[in-house]
Amino acid sequence: MTQHADDDPADRHGGVAELRLATGDPGPALPLDRNQAILQAAKQVGAILKRQGHAFALAGSVAVYAHGGTQNLQHDVDFCIRPEDAQAVAESLREAGLPVRTPPEDWLLKADCLGQQVDLIFELAHQPVTAELLERADELSVDSVFMPVLSPTDLLHSLLSAFSEHHCDFGAVLPIARTLRERVDWAALRRDCGDAPMPDAFFYFLERLEVIAPRTGEGVS
Question: Residue ranges of the alpha helices (H) in the chain?
Answer without folding.
Answer: 34-51, 60-66, 86-95, 131-135, 152-161, 170-180, 186-193, 197-208
